[in-house]
Specification:
Order of helices and strands: EEEHHHHEHHEHHHEHEEHE
CATH architecture of the largest domain: 2-Layer Sandwich
Helix content: 25-40%
CATH superfamily of the largest domain: Ribonuclease H-like superfamily/Ribonuclease H
Radius of gyration: 19 Å
Distance between the termini: 16 Å
Structural class: alpha+beta
CATH topology of the largest domain: Nucleotidyltransferase, domain 5
Strand content: 15-25%
CATH class of the largest domain: Alpha Beta
Shape: globular
Largest sheet: 5 strands, mixed
Number of strands: 9
């Protein structure tokens, strides 16, 4: 495990959840100094889109805005090079539901910057949804960014915009006195476990943070660390390992 001094907090807004049918329309990034609990640099940019923004009701980004001259001219190699510069300054990349943001960000870097996505894959990624154990009683087991913000007394003024979501995460991290310990703990390897429960026991799995996988295993699953398994009130079966905070 590595002591992390600078984190690149990233977020992607998209036209929908389907990677094959939808497209990224906004990236946000904040370089966060862990020792000083402070933002040092910020980046945000809208991307031109050739597909309709089916998520406009959530993110408030109209198609007409994505096709303005300012957006088309503003996005390009200069934006990507600045984003890459922030990446070079960071010890790790942090996102809420990191797997989602990574799948949209890396192809853009690959296609526009001659393969820069490679070193983004190699640098550690930390997920504030999967890797952190927040230990805040009022939080549900799978909190949203807004849930995290409100639980830590961070005002929420806008939702589902890339830079504001990054800012919420930065403010949450800044409020935690135990941040170094949280980051070290987040780097511990995890394994995906399936809950061995009956239909009648499904609420036990849900209460323990397991999520129903309707389209894959059709079972309740959750990533856990080895020392967390024994505390569960039901049996679990290992499905697949996940080395937390890696680019794998």
């Amino acid at each position: 495990m590595t002591t992390l001094r600078n984190l690149l907090i990233v977020d992607a807004e998209t036209t929908g959840l389907d990677f094959e049918e939808n497209a990224p329309i906004e990236f946000g990034a904040i370089l966060f100094d862990v020792d000083h609990r402070s933002i040092t640099h910020q980046f945000s940019a809208l991307l031109p889109s050739v597909v309709p923004n089916d998520a406009e009701a959530l993110n408030g980004i109209p198609d007409s805005l994505l096709n303005t001259t300012a957006v088309r001219m503003g996005w390009g190699l200069t934006s990507l090079r600045y984003l890459q510069h922030l990446h070079n300054c960071a010890d790790a990349i942090l996102a809420h539901n990191a797997e989602f943001d990574r799948q949209w960000l890396l192809p853009v870097l690959s296609s526009n910057q001659g393969g820069l996505a490679g070193n983004w894959r190699q640098k550690p990624w930390i997920c504030t949804l999967r890797d952190f154990r927040w230990k805040v009683p009022s939080l549900r087991s799978t909190p949203s960014v807004v849930d995290l913000a409100l639980a830590h007394g961070v005002p929420v003024w806008q939702t589902h915009r890339a830079l504001t979501d990054c800012a919420y995460l930065a403010e949450v991290l800044a409020s935690r006195q135990d941040l170094p310990e949280l980051l070290l703990d987040a780097q511990k390897p995890q394994t995906l476990y399936a809950a061995v429960v009956t239909y009648e026991q499904r609420e036990m799995a849900k209460a323990a943070g397991f999520q129903w996988q309707a389209h894959q295993q059709r079972t309740w699953t959750r990533y856990l660390r080895e020392d967390e398994v024994g505390a569960l009130p039901f049996k679990v079966v290992a499905v697949a390992p996940w080395p937390a905070a890696t680019g794998a």
